[in-house]
Design a protein that fits this description.
Blueprint: E1 2-3, E2 17-18, E3 36-43, E4 49-54, E5 57-62, E6 67-71, E7 73-79, E8 91-95, E9 100-105, E10 110-117, E11 123-128, E12 131-136, E13 141-145, E14 147-153, E15 165-169, E16 174-179, E17 184-191, E18 197-202, E19 205-210, E20 215-219, E21 221-227, E22 239-243, E23 248-253
Parallel strand pairs: 3-9, 10-16, 17-23
Antiparallel strand pairs: 1-2, 3-6, 4-5, 4-7, 7-8, 10-13, 11-12, 11-14, 14-15, 17-20, 18-19, 18-21, 21-22
């Protein structure tokens, strides 16, 4: 006689068994189903931890250390956060009797930094876990290890340079930095003659003004002031200076009063 055991749920089915029945005897077959198995979780991060929920409740574990003698059934693994790495998604699998069920916790350990600027072609240096990387605004830098990054924008002409910025890059994310250079400033001409007038030539063209009244939002660059004649007073000489971003540039128009 040969007995063939039928499958029962996720349990491991006993092998076929064959025995000979003799007259007057009682023949015994033992169907020992395998009702447990092993879960083996691995990860690309050494020491990564997880919780495993299934028929026997929730079990905590560490990647690389198998958990044995678990009852058969459905298991869901939840990986715990690990620093700035991107955490793997939950996974659910079926453990069958006598089997080893594998889970792979692949954390995302890199990301992208994407600096932008209001100045085309602005350059920067980026310091972080991988060292220092030089770049140009508008060109993302990928495959950078997660961690803290500090951007230092380089000087760009007469524009006011943005301050350093520090942010944290997490796995799978894109980190943005905005390098907003200050591209304008203020010119504030004064004079020893009340109401003295002038013309100011520079990158934005020619602007007329009156001493004591600042002119704001002027593009950075070289400016030349020409003071207008004022009665019999001696007119000041032309003056040229450079306006830098965010600064206030002063011109002093000292007319020589007639006596």
């Amino acid at each position: 006689y040969t007995v063939t055991w039928s499958a029962v749920g996720n349990n491991g089915t006993p092998s076929n068994q064959t025995q000979t029945l003799t007259a007057g005897a009682t023949l015994t077959f033992n169907g020992a189903y395998v009702t447990t198995g092993t879960v083996s979780a691995t990860s690309n991060i050494s020491g990564a931890t997880f919780s495993l929920s299934g028929p026997g409740g929730t079990t905590n574990g560490v990647a690389g250390t198998p958990i044995a003698n678990l009852p058969v059934g459905s298991y869901t693994i939840t990986w715990n956060a690990n620093g700035n790495n991107g955490t793997p998604s939950q996974e659910t699998k079926i453990l069958t009797g006598g089997a080893t069920l594998s889970f792979a916790g692949n954390y995302v350990t890199t990301g992208t930094v994407s600096p932008t600027s209001n100045i085309s072609g602005a350059t920067f240096s980026l310091s972080g876990p991988g060292g220092i990387t030089n770049g140009t605004a508008g060109t993302p830098i990928g495959n950078l290890p997660v961690g803290s990054y500090t951007i230092t924008w380089n000087a760009n002409g007469n524009n006011g340079t943005p301050a350093q910025q520090a942010q944290t890059l997490t796995g799978g994310a894109t980190l943005s930095f905005a390098g907003n250079y200050v591209t304008t400033g203020t010119i504030s001409p004064t004079s020893n003659i009340s109401g003295a007038t002038f013309s100011l030539s520079g990158p934005g063209g020619v602007t007329n003004g009156t001493a004591g009244t600042p002119i704001g939002n002027l593009p950075v660059g070289s400016y030349t002031i020409t003071w207008n004649a004022n009665g019999n007073n001696g007119t000041p000489a032309q003056q040229t200076q450079t306006l830098t971003g965010g600064a206030t540039l002063s011109f002093a128009g000292k007319d020589r009063k007639s006596t």
